[in-house]
Amino acid sequence: MVKPFDSHAHLYDEAYDADRAQVLAESARELSGLIIPGADLASSHQAVELAQMYGNVYAAVGFHPHEARLMREGDEDMLAESAKDKKVVAIGEIGLDYYYDHSPRETQKAVFIRQLGLARQLGLPVVIHDRDAHGDILAIMQKEGRGVSGVFHCYSGSWEMAELLLKMGFYLSFGGSLTFKNAAKTVKVAQNTPIDRILLETDAPYLTPVPWRGRRNSPCLVKLVCAKLAALKGLSFEETAGVTAANTCALFNILPGLEQG
Ligand SMILES: [Zn+2]
C-alpha cells in the first residue's frame, strides 16, 4: 500500500494541544511522511522537536510573512543553528501575504529576501506562502531566487504564473482547497501541471478538505486531496500517492523508506 506524503502541516498549532501526540503518531503511521513548517522562531523550534519524535516526520524553519515584523537582526543565525538538525529539510514557510497584511509589505519583502539568501547559503529548498502577492513574489524569485529550489504551497495563482514557476524549476503543492466547490482555477492549474511537479499537503489545521470542511484538519486527510488529484489526472490513488511522495522526497532530499531518526 503506497501512502501519501503530507508536505505541509502545522502540528504545533494550539488546535492540537489536547491530542497532539495522538495526531502525530497516527500521521506517522498512516502517511509515508510529514513536514511541519515553522512560522517564527518558537514554532520553528517546536517543529524540530516534533520531527525528532518519528523517523518520517520532518521540519522546516523560518518566518511566515504574518510574523515578518518579529524577525530581528540575529534571527538568521538562530534559524541556521536550528537547520543543522538533520530533520530540518527546508527554510519555510516564507513569502508574502497581501490578503491579511499582518506585517507591513516592505518588511515582508525584506524578510522574504533575507530568508531566500539563508536558504541559498545553507543549500536548502524553500517552502513559499503566496497570498494575493503573485506579482511581487514572481519579481523577487526572478531576481533573488537564483539557485534556490522550492515549492509554492497551497498554490493559488494563475496557470500563466504556474507555467513560469514550473519553467524556473519550482514544484506546486495542492491541499484541501482543491476539493472546494469554487476551486475551478486551482483545478485547472492542477490538471495542467505535470504530475512529477506536484506535491500534496493539508496545511492542517486549516483548509480541511470536503466533506469535512469547517472541522479541524489533520495530516491523514491528505488522502482526500490525493483522491481528488487522482480523479483529475485519471490515475489510481496508489500511483498519485507514490509519485507525489517521491516528488516530495526528491525536492527535500529525503531518502524514501530510510527513516532518518
Ligand atoms: Zn502553512
Helix-strand layout with pairing:
Layout: E1 5-6, H1 20-30, E2 33-37, H2 41-51, E3 57-61, H3 75-82, E4 88-97, H4 105-122, E5 126-131, H5 134-144, E6 150-152, H6 159-167, E7 171-174, H7 184-192, E8 198-200, H8 222-233, H9 237-251
Parallel strand pairs: 1-2, 2-3, 3-4, 4-5, 5-6, 6-7, 7-8
Helix pairs in contact: 2-3, 8-9
The structure holds zinc ion.
Q: How is the largest sheet built, in terms of strand order?
A: 1-2-3-4-5-6-7-8
The helix/strand series, from N terminus to C terminus, equals EHEHEHEHEHEHEHEHH
Q: Roughly what percent helix? A: 25-40%
Task: State mean pLDDT (0 to 100 scale).
Answer: 95
Distance between the termini: 22 Å
Q: How many alpha or pi helices?
A: 9
Total discrete domains: 1
Strand content: 5-15%
Indicate the CATH topology: TIM Barrel
Bound molecules: zinc ion
* Overall shape: globular
- Low-confidence runs (pLDDT<50, min 5 residues)? none
The CATH architecture classification is Alpha-Beta Barrel
Q: What is the class in the CATH system?
A: Alpha Beta
What structural class should be given to the helix and strand makeup? alpha/beta
Quick one: biggest sheet?
8 strands, parallel
